[in-house]
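agent> fetching stored inputs for the magnesium ion docking request
agent> found them:
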Amino acid sequence: MQQALAMVRRELGSSAAVLHTREVRPRGLARWLGAKPEIEVVASANVSVPSRLPANSEPVVVPIVPPPTQVGIELDTEAPSARAASNVQLFAQLSALQSKVEDLCRRSGKESRSELPDCAFQLFTELIDADVCEELARELIESARRELGENETLDPQQLKAEVARRIEREITLAGPIGSSPGRRHLVALVGPTGVGKTTTIAKLAANYRLREKRRVGLITVDTYRIAAVEQLRTYADIIDLPMEIVSTPREMHQAVARMSDLDLILMDTAGRSPRDEVKIQELKSLLAEASPDEVHLVLSSVASASSLAKTAAQFAEVGTTALLLTKLDEAASLGNLLPLLRQCGLPLSYLTHGQNVPDDIATADSGHLARVILGLETVAGKRQLVET
Ligand SMILES: Nc1nc2c(ncn2[C@@H]2O[C@H](COP(=O)(O)OP(=O)(O)OP(=O)(O)O)[C@@H](O)[C@H]2O)c(=O)[nH]1
Ligand SMILES: [Mg+2]
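agent> prediction call returned; pasting tokens
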């Protein structure tokens, strides 16, 4: 850039106006033959560029120079030609600085590309946009490329479809709740506050009671908030289900015994902060008394990957057996779920995608979820009732 500006100066004089500069990268064959980028500068000795200074100031030739107060140049005390010369100099310095920064960005960009061809790099950036961490995005793309033939790898659609299949394979499924008529099955939902446990219990209860005609009962151990009990009672009344309120291990034992003739008992629990070790232990002893067949960890898909991982690890203490993800409709992207799905060791049971009871719930489908993560399908694109 400096050389180019020196040429401009030589050819057009030091008061020439630089109108535009850009770096032209070699394309096609030239690029593969190692041609270097070229610098293009558009300059004129005749064109007068509009000033960015206040109306009463004299015109300035080069427009990118910030106002005098910012750069400390006393324009008013200089003759116009000297001012223009110092502006060109300043511009040259700025351009040199800019090209250094661009070069640095390009080099770090190259490192993150790790020699990915263009179509793979495009997918790489899409995965990053979808909140997939860089390392995992690269791993997925590279393993997909190894799987595909040379020509397929160059087809962005095929590459994306292969990455989707890889994500799909990473997701293990729990299937729907294992309830069968005449055999009491107890399922507890645990998780942090506000993730949608009670709403999901209502969705499950309504589906199993009204659609599957199972004998369903509800137990709540959320006695910390009156509103929480009332919330579940309202659903119990609407769906016409028996409901027990439990606050001690002894009461738990009795409540479960009273419901022993039902097909399915759904247990709602108070939201716990995963960092509150005492409350987690309390929950653990209450659950131990109930001996649930399944303990679903309910997590909101809006949470960050690191918070999801930490929460899953802390709730493992209470004996979680499945993962249930809520609020898929609220998440801007879902790549944050991938580390959790890979590492938490829990199979995925249900996905919820809205506040509507009983509709906004579906048995998890790994293919659908993988395609949603990659933006190939929408969350609401596939609605599926609870299967039994
Ligand atoms: N958008 C959206 N909202 C949901 C979903 N599931 C639940 N909600 C909403 O999330 C809010 C909290 O839901 P609750 O069911 O009360 O959550 P909770 O986990 O029982 O909360 P605590 O009992 O306080 O721990 C409510 O406004 C629900 O309507 C979902 O899938 N999508
Ligand atoms: Mg609740």
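agent> quick read of the result: Residues 51-76 have pLDDT under 50 and may be disordered.
agent> awaiting further instructions
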